[in-house]
Amino acid sequence: MTQLLPTDDDLSVYVVQVETTGLWEVGCCNSVCSHLHHEVGQYRSKGHAEAAAKRHRLHIRRETTKRAERASDTVTIPRDAYLRLVKVAAYVSRGLSFVGVDPYPDAAARFALGALDNIGLIPEGEGS
Questions:
Q1: Sign of the dihedral through C-alpha 64, 70, 71, 73
Q2: Do residues 26 and 68 share a domain?
Q3: How far apart are alpha carbons 20 and 78 in whole angstroms?
Q4: DSSP code, position 102
Q5: Is residue 3 in a domain?
Q6: CA distance 91 to 86
Q7: How many folded domains does the chain comprise?
């Protein structure tokens, strides 16, 4: 492989010409893709290869944006609080006909709400 042609600021997608075949190969070594290093495709012309590289860079940017949006929707809570929230949700999900059948998980609810409030996940005035 000879000629490296980075055509954008993202150098993890690259275009090279294979010496033995003369074909233009598009490769990727971005961790966003399912394989750390993979071949995107081989093309007869440099222009087609660069267009494919541009499309793959756009795919990477879109996937990176999606991952960032998903990450911003997640929060980390203490494991004990999570387990107690599950206990409260399981109780509540049984419906009103089961009230009084099992012990009411009020202590679990108070603990979980307190733990969430301690890490700032409950807006002011909502936890009372």
A1: positive
A2: yes
A3: 58
A4: B
A5: no
A6: 9
A7: 2
